[in-house]
């Protein structure tokens, strides 16, 4: 597959179709036969990272010098949507691709030595990377984080706690937001630090959740964890800006995931409606059911069009770093993320309604996605935060 995406400028419809087809086949052969068991176990096998890496999924969008495969958002979205639509598991997607929020700060701001130490093994599926920002006391209020990293000689000593960390239990690398300026309680005192998962003084505990059952989600404590000063990402005090920039890509990816899950609900509901007989006719023969399906389709297609438009701007270089034009793009990403997750919520709700009693049963995609909707609407920035950020970017 890598040969399809060596040059971002040469991507065509046939490449996108090939990626979508490969994603569907991967889910059908590697995931679907085992997904229910993984959900019950609360995790999926670690070797799935290697299998995804062999397909080129983990490396997509990263620099070739680290084993990556350059790819525009159009291609990355196609992969994400197809995997989500066919698999219908947010837990799988969240953990399998947790490096997509953990690695970008290192790619953009890490030293070459740090990049070479961290990135290649993750893209090859040999190591797992995670992002650790959220804290029990702060949530979305990143600027108020309390985890500290004080410099002692050529090491940082990290103390504090993180929570709701995807891939947090078994991550080999944690990209951690820390407060390096202990006198500065605001955003300028924050830095980013790469912490090895096997560091002494680091403890991790799995969390039980409503959804994303097969995703590894952790609460993490740092008790005097010593990290080489060379593991600092960028400069001291630049962490808050790095975090804000990182959110843009995360939210765009979440919009693509939400679209895929919405389509998954539509596909299952349509298939059920075509097969299920009520009052002597298939469910789909009833006007009220057809209208539910069309309401789902209407929201799906509007989300797709918006995602394509925002992604095209990102591929053209409009990614939030160009004054007024960039600010408007950031607003679009925020609002798109809200719209996409609301579409997912609507489609999951209607899918369960169409499936009736079966929609309440474990094992259906609609039931699983119904439970996973809220984490999509909260993660990466809650709806309320997205609206406020968008209004500020637009000077409303």
Instruction: Specify the oligomeric state.
Output: single chain
How many distinct beta strands?
A: 10
Radius of gyration: 21 Å
Low-confidence stretches: 1-9
Strand arrangement across the biggest beta sheet:
1-4-5-8
* CATH architecture annotation name of the largest domain: Up-down Bundle
- Considering the protein shown, what is the CATH homologous superfamily of the largest domain? Butyryl-CoA Dehydrogenase, subunit A, domain 3
Shape: globular
Spell out the helices and strands N to C: HHHHHHHHEEEEEEEEHEEHHHH
Name the structural class. Answer: alpha+beta
Count of helix runs: 13
CATH topology of the largest domain: Butyryl-CoA Dehydrogenase, subunit A, domain 3
Please tag this protein with its features:
single chain; 396 residues; alpha+beta; Butyryl-Coa Dehydrogenase, subunit A, domain 1; Butyryl-CoA Dehydrogenase, subunit A, domain 2; Butyryl-CoA Dehydrogenase, subunit A, domain 3; four-stranded mixed sheet; four-stranded antiparallel sheet; 13 helices; 15% strand; globular; disordered N terminus
